[in-house]
Amino acid sequence: MQPSELLHISETDYLETERLALEKHEYFNGEVFAMSRANISHNQIFSNSIFSIGTQLKGKKCQPFGSDLRVHVPKNTLFTYPDISIVCGEIETTDDKFDTITNPSVLIEILSPSTRNYDKGEKFTLYREIASLQEYILIDSERIMVEKFIRNSDNSWQLTEYRSIEQSFSIATVGIEMQLVDIYEGVKIV
Questions:
Q1: What 3-state DSSP class applies to 84?
Q2: Which of 65, 126, 134, 139 could in theory staple to 173 by disulfide, Cβ–Cβ 3.0 to 4.6 A?
Q3: CA distances from 126 to 29, 101, 118, 136 (A)
Q4: Are 127 and 107 in contact (CB under 8 A)?
Q5: How far is CA 49 from CA 52, 53, 64, 65, 111, in A?
Q6: Which of 42, 66, 45 is nearest to 54 (CA)?
Q7: What does each C-alpha distance from 157 to 4, 31, 62, 68 come to in angstroms?
Q8: Of 5, 155, 131, 2, which Cα lies nearest the Cα of 75?
Q9: Inter-residue contact 109 to 117 (CB < 8 Å)
Q10: What's the pLDDT score for residue 4?
Q11: With 0-12 CB in 10 A as exposed, 13-18 as middle and 19+ as buried, what is 95?
Q12: Which among 115, 120, 61, 110 has a CA at the least distance from the CA of 86?
């Protein structure tokens, strides 16, 4: 098939199909992409992080969600499943199915070899079009490394890196502190 012959589907068709699918798929500009599976380290980091975030947000107006909650960026058509989304205030959804949000305040991706370049590059470029997004955090699953991007008042993004297990960082948008030793607890770093 020639590139000009690629079939593009509408956002509506994608959502109808995705809601029936057994596996998750991303959508961008009419194309659908299968999502890769996560390894043990990825799952340990996810569990450690979501537990810490959920515990610290208890009783606050912000809620964490796992990777089964779809995020849509209307400005660029992206539908995706971030590893962790935090929504503050009223949750905005695309429709009455309540399975796709449009207003995350914080997005967290756990990097793996197959997603690293995309999550750090094109995906972050697409995420930056979410008006409500204030922080984007990347947690490496192969080494001790957290990269935190925070939106400045002029819409530029500031990067801070954390490379030591003794370090901690704040998720300022929601007023919580994350310890790298807790995030990486039980994770085998080679």
A1: strand
A2: 134
A3: 12, 15, 10, 12
A4: yes
A5: 5, 6, 10, 11, 14
A6: 66
A7: 36, 28, 22, 27
A8: 131
A9: no
A10: 44
A11: exposed
A12: 61
Q: What is the C-alpha to C-alpha distance for residues 105 and 169, in angstroms, rounded to an integer? A: 17
Backbone dihedral angles phi then psi of residue 158, each to the nearest 5 degrees: -110, 130
pLDDT tens-digit map of 148-179: 999 999 999 999 999 999 999 999 999 999 99
SS3 annotation, 160-185? EEECCCCCEEEECCCCEEEEHHHHCC
* pLDDT per residue as tens digits for the range 66-81: 999 999 999 999 999 9
DSSP H or E run through 48: helix 40-57
Residue 106, both tokens: 């914080």
Q: What is the DSSP string of 112-154?
A: -TTTHHHHHTHHHHHHTT-TT--EEEEEESSSS-EEEEEE-TT
155 in the Ramachandran plot: left (φ > 0), alpha (ψ -120 to 50) or beta? left
At 96, list the tokens. Answer: 């009455």
Is 82:67 a contact under the CB 8 Å cutoff?
yes
